[in-house]
Design goal:
The protein is mostly helical. It contains 14 helices and three strands. It folds into two domains: 222 residues, no CATH class; 134 residues. 68% of the residues lie in helices and 4% in strands. It has a three-stranded antiparallel beta sheet, with no helix packed on it. The longest helix is centred in the C-terminal third of the chain and has 33 residues. It is globular. The two termini are 40 Å apart.
């Protein structure tokens, strides 16, 4: 019995040591981000009490459960050697594609807001595109590493094009153009970091602009968003309603905000107080100071990730760290910009602030990959 107990204690110590081998600065930023996100989410969720008091407790419990379970899975992924994660990239990519195709299977999927992006498994909703976003980054890094010798050739453009083709086709059919933008951006970053010449980058950019212009012109709801962005003072009870309510919340926050839980706009005015518009609640209750803290947090995250990538001993690890961290940052930035009327409304959520178990899980798994890749870094 003592020998068995000694073996268990040794295993526990090993687990603790593995935890502390994670980059401490990045881990501290992540933990603060998660705590801040749940604090704001909890306040924004108070607006649901007007609809159903029991709905509030159910959503809070679900969010806490998602955070805890996803964080544990992140620690598990962080322990896997990066080489093993990269070698499994084709399988992860294929699995995410197959999972995403299920949104078109009647009986398994459901639609909301005119988009078919979710499936229901064991009574739980899942948004497969969240996994497809990050698996595409791993897969392109896997292929670029394999065909590194031909990266200077114009024909190498076929690599990011092939990786992006299936996800883009699926996302355009759902439709989910916002996520497709994040994927294209992340794949372009990966392609550039592997040494692709500027000529190839410019060709890829031109083709992407043409593709997105075609998508925008063929989807009336996207044109409507651009129209309401350009003329936000028109149709105040229709297309421009959300952005105007968001601006009212942001503007009324002033410098210090109204105080935690004291926001008004979440009570029936903001259409998605725990979704896209959770940033507006932050700005109303914590003012410019709260917004500054969030932007500082996001900046510190990207700077730390870039530093880990800079001192990485592996090009593949460095590429994955930069591409994953930028995709997370860009999603947050676009959400903040859209809610502040700097960009048209996109539907992208604010990572760790907005409601969404799939988003939390996928993003924390991406952090797990970043932590695993960061172990190749010479930084201390």
């Amino acid at each position: 019995m003592p020998a068995k107990r000694k073996k268990i204690n040794k295993k526990i110590r090993k687990q603790i040591l593995a935890f502390f081998r994670l980059d401490k600065v990045l881990l501290a930023i992540l933990i603060f981000w998660l705590l801040m996100g749940f604090l704001i989410f909890s306040s924004a969720a108070l607006g649901l009490m007007a609809k159903n008091n029991s709905l509030l407790s159910g959503i809070l419990i679900k969010q806490v459960a998602s955070l805890i379970l996803s964080f544990i899975l992140m620690l598990f992924v962080a322990r896997i050697p990066f080489k093993k994660i990269l070698n499994s990239a084709p399988y992860l990519y294929l699995a995410s594609i197959l999972l995403s195709l299920l949104v078109f299977v009647p009986g398994l999927s459901f639609s909301a807001g005119g988009a078919r992006r979710w499936i229901v498994i064991f009574g739980q909703s899942l948004q497969p595109s969240e996994f497809m976003k990050y698996s595409s980054i791993l897969f392109i890094t896997y292929l670029l590493l394999k065909y590194k010798r031909c990266i200077k050739d114009v024909k190498s453009l076929a690599i990011p094009a092939a990786v992006a083709a299936l996800p883009l086709a699926i996302l355009i059919m759902e439709p989910d153009t916002s996520t497709s933008f994040v994927i294209v951006f992340a794949l372009a970053v990966s392609y550039f970091l592997f040494g692709a010449p500027w000529k190839n980058i410019m060709i890829a950019t031109s083709l992407t602009v043409i593709l997105f212009a075609g998508v925008v012109m063929s989807h009336p709801y996207i044109l409507k968003r651009f129209s309401s962005f350009a003329n936000s003072n028109q149709d105040l009870l229709g297309a421009s309603y959300q952005i105007n309510q968001s601006l009212i919340a942001i503007g009324s926050g002033g410098f210090f905000g109204k105080g935690y839980g004291q926001g008004v706009q979440k009570f029936g005015y903001l259409p998605e107080p725990v979704g896209d518009a959770v940033f507006a609640t932050l700005a109303e209750e914590f003012g410019f100071l709260g917004v500054f803290v969030l932007l500082l947090l996001l900046s510190l995250f990207v700077l730390r990730a870039f530093k880990l990538a800079k001192y990485s001993r592996s090009l593949a690890a460095s590429t994955v760290i930069v591409a994953l961290s930028l995709s997370i940052f860009i999603q947050a930035f676009v959400n903040i910009a859209a809610m502040s009327a700097v960009l048209p409304l996109t539907g992208l959520t604010l990572p760790f602030f907005s409601l969404g178990g799939t988003s939390i899980l996928a993003t924390l798994l991406a952090f797990g990959v970043i932590f695993s890749a960061a172990k190749n870094s010479k930084i201390k």
